[in-house]
Amino acid sequence: MDSRYQLLKTLSEYTCSSIQEKTNKLLITSFIEQNPDCFYRSCINGHVTGSALLLSHDKRYILLHFHNLCQKWLPFGGHADGESDIASVAMRELAEESGITDVELLYNSPSYINIHYIPHNDKKGEKEHVHYDITYTFICKKAEDCLQSPEALEMRWIPIDILKKYDMHDILAITLKKLELL
């Protein structure tokens, strides 16, 4: 069976919360259908990525990192690197970037889907490309400290009720509203 099948099925069942998300869903689905290598960085024009929102065990806090390149508070995430189970990709990236592994998936379906345009990066030797991102939400099973990622200036457990004070990515605010946490 084609490794893209499960993600295409997940996307077909996904309920969008806005016109922008409906557009993203169409574009991401089309991209996946047209690119058998969509889970690899070698797919030069773009590739599927996975992101993870991590909520505290009591759902009162979210763990975010201030991303050096984007200069924004973001959830964790990264490249699929050939893995077609994007929830697993999101969990792997969360563990690699935060050091937290004792988590569980809040919902089996994505929390949000988005398209990120990545600029040319001489340091990484990357051309401009697109990340077709699938975000999942996880719950931390217990209170934990986190590691410091080299991609982040800072990482924090932030109370959800004061998130509006942070310069957060629009996607984060939309996703938390969808989850009825903001």
Automatic annotation (TrEMBL):
Alphabetized, the UniProt keywords read: Hydrolase
Output the Gene Ontology terms for molecular function. hydrolase activity
Instruction: List, alphabetically, the PROSITE patterns matched.
Output: NUDIX
Where the record annotates domain Nudix hydrolase, the positions are 45-180
Family annotation (InterPro entries): NUDIX_hydrolase-like_dom_sf, NUDIX_hydrolase_dom
What is the protein name given in its UniProt record?
NUDIX hydrolase
Which organism is this entry from?
Candidatus Cyrtobacter comes
